[in-house]
């Protein structure tokens, strides 16, 4: 007996993990740039005789870790989705549905997240 709700639940779960990964990546970018923002605020008010680079380095490291975590979430969710969907009977999948787009989107966004993390680490 066929139950297409299983397929649609899997799709909904994948899209929820993609949203979560994008949110974590966005938060990581904000954290990575927050130390730079604090340095600019402090430099406007009081000229510091010492460098406040450790604060920037710490926030940058935490932000990069969050970016990598968000990208990993999306790539892992896409691969898990593929493993779950592949053994489903054809009767559970809509006839005109092309399932590669959500998985491809997750892989592309995860790859872009890794590239952004590399960019933040280099600059």
Short summary:
With 123 residues, this protein is mostly helical. It has helices at residues 5-45, 53-85, 100-122.
Question: How does this model look, in words?
Answer:
The chain is mainly α. It has one domain (5-122). It has three helices and no strands. It has helices at residues 5-45, 53-85, 100-122. Helix 1 (5-45) runs parallel beside helix 3. The longest helix is centred in the N-terminal third of the chain and has 41 residues, at 5-45. The protein is rod-shaped, with a radius of gyration of 20 Å. The chain starts with a helix and ends with a helix.
What best-fitting shape do the alpha-carbon axes yield? rod-shaped
Distance between the termini: 56 Å
Number of domain modules:
1
Low-confidence stretches: none
The count of helical stretches stands at: 3
Q: Sheet with the most strands?
A: none
The string of secondary-structure elements, in order, is HHH
Q: Return Rg in Å.
A: 20 Å
What's the structural blueprint in terms of helices and strands?
Layout: H1 5-45, H2 53-85, H3 100-122
Q: Any key phrases for this structure?
A:
123 residues; single chain
